[in-house]
Write a structure and sequence with these properties.
The protein is α/β, with parallel strands linked by helices. The protein has one domain (3-210): TIM Barrel, CATH 3.20.20. Helices cover 20% and strands 26% of the residues. Strands 3-1-2-4-5-6-7-8-9 form a 9-stranded mixed sheet. Strand 4, helix 2 and strand 5 (115-120) form a beta-alpha-beta unit.
Length: 213
């Protein structure tokens, strides 16, 4: 299988349960809820995405003809940035990573002692060997993955009530304010919701505050 990757880079995880932890991000090209082209945004299922996942021209990006070659690249980037080999952490994201991520790649990453986390919109089945599964549901998209480690809901979304997800089989529930011109009011709303509904915790995009990738 050929893997098409927008970028691979070393940073700190900015959101959710592992916020602040050093990680290699592997951003796969492509998504099933938006083409990534601005002229398609108004007709997309997910219209608020702020991520560039088009092409292979990002840092470390490209087409990788095997799971081994992609795992080698991820391993190389980790090793270039730190001598610590005991806390290897890779976040597979997108776009929608589960359009490409498979057990072959996860096996190769495990051979290199990586803890493999995935950030998905939940509309595709996940490989069985994922170590940490973060699902971020989107309004208008059928949710296939109803269990995992972390449900992270961008809020508010029209027609989406966070309480509708509370009976799903997740270990952690996060509410994240939608970015954009209404960020301040969205953040206040999320804070108040989490105060009233303590099953939920606030997730902030700290990488934006810290100005890191």
């Amino acid at each position: 299988m050929t893997y098409t990757v927008k970028e691979i880079f070393y940073t700190l995880q900015g959101e959710g349960f592992f916020s602040g932890r050093a990680a290699v991000f592997c951003r796969f090209t492509g998504c099933n809820l938006w083409s990534g082209h601005e002229y398609h945004r108004d007709s997309a299922v997910c219209q608020f995405c702020d991520t560039d996942f088009l092409g292979t021209d990002g840092e470390g990006g490209g087409k990788f003809k095997s799971a081994k070659s992609l795992a080698d690249q991820i391993d190389k980037i980790w090793s270039q940035e730190t001598n610590n080999q005991d806390s290897r952490f890779v976040v597979c994201t997108g776009g929608e990573p589960l359009l490409q991520l498979d057990n072959s790649l996860i096996t190769e990453l495990h051979r290199r002692h990586f803890f493999v986390a995935v950030e998905t919109n939940g509309t595709q089945d996940a490989p069985s060997d994922v170590d940490w599964l973060t699902v971020s549901p989107k309004a208008g998209a059928q949710l296939i993955l109803e269990r995992g480690n972390e449900l992270k809901l961008v809020h508010p979304q029209n027609g989406v009530n966070p309480e509708a997800y509370e009976d799903l089989d997740f270990d952690n529930f996060y509410l994240q304010p939608m970015d954009g011109p209404e960020l301040e009011s969205n953040t206040k709303h999320v804070i108040e919701f989490c105060r009233r509904n303590p099953i939920w915790k606030v997730s902030l995009q700290t990488h934006k505050f810290l100005d890191i990738p």
